[in-house]
Amino acid sequence: MAYVGRFAPSPTGPLHAGSVLAALGSWLDARAHQGRWLVRIEDVDRPRCPPGTDQLILRQLDALGLRADAPPSWQSQREALYEQALQRLIAADLAYPCACTRKELAAAQGERARHGERVYPGTCRPENGGLRGRPARAWRFRVPAGVVHWQDRRLGLQQQDVAQAVGDFVLRRADGLWAYQLAVVVDDAEQGITDVVRGEDLADNTPRQIQLQQALGLPTPRYLHLPLVLAADGQKLSKQNGAAAFDSSQPLQALQAAATALGLQGMPASATLPEWLHAATRAWAATIAPF
């Protein structure tokens, strides 16, 4: 099976050191496997995406020499695919409408549990009484019982009981926007993605995505979750905690920092951008790439 990878940034702000690491890692893995590398702009949460940020990200990638093998795609242009997937899940009795508000969930569940999320208790499941005459706000996936196991190329064997850890998760939000979990699963399958290379903070999403893949009859890619770039307080470096955009006038400096965080050894201190990327691909193939 020919390798197809992707980098899928959310255009909520410019690329910073952490997202440069994710972009470089996914690009190197594709190149080391003589595969294709795609760029997908994940703008499904449009209110959080300032106008023009998508084009800024594309210019930043170009400055880094990380060029895709096809024109970029935008989630905001793919909503018909998400609707089709939702209708398939509804027809299979694997999705149901939910009337719960955040206030109601907070009152019912008390303190937040995992990653700031509350485990959904199945309040609006049809067998629990359904909507009880209230208007539907969101659509949720009916999470099957059982533990999901998967093999991560860096983290090793992973597992999660999604029903216990997350509960029935949202597919379409109360504001009408599509949830990340459904959109990414549909996109990866439609684009033929064989390998997902992304930050370790997204590993927790993997079991939910595997369940959706299975429910929709879609293939499950291989997964490789990369180490994170941390802020001074030890938290993940992100736009939310003030991560600064990398200096696109010095792309080699940004790439070198990312390579160090990825554990690549022997990178040239002085090289042209193509020479550096060629050396990085060789280093990746020698140390990280094997499945």
- Please tell me what the overall shape is: elongated
Mean pLDDT: 92
Largest sheet: 3 strands, parallel
In N-to-C order, the SSE pattern is: EHEHEHEHEEEHEHEHEHH
The total count of strands amounts to 10
Helix content: 25-40%
The radius of gyration is 20 Å
Number of helices: 9
Sheet/helix structural class = alpha/beta
Task: Describe the 3D structure.
With 291 residues, the chain is α/β, with parallel strands linked by helices. The chain has 9 helices and 10 strands.
Furnish the topology, listing elements before pairings.
Blueprint: E1 4-7, H1 17-32, E2 36-41, H2 53-64, E3 73-74, H3 79-91, E4 95-98, H4 102-109, E5 138-141, E6 148-152, E7 156-160, H5 162-165, E8 170-172, H6 180-190, E9 195-199, H7 206-216, E10 222-226, H8 251-262, H9 273-287
Parallel strand pairs: 1-2, 2-3, 9-10
Antiparallel strand pairs: 4-5, 5-8, 6-7
Helix pairs in contact: 1-8, 1-9, 3-6, 6-7
Structure keywords:
291 residues, alpha/beta, three-stranded parallel β-sheet, 10 strands, elongated
Summarize the structure.
With 291 residues, this protein is α/β, with parallel strands linked by helices. It is built from nine helices and ten strands. 36% of the residues are buried.
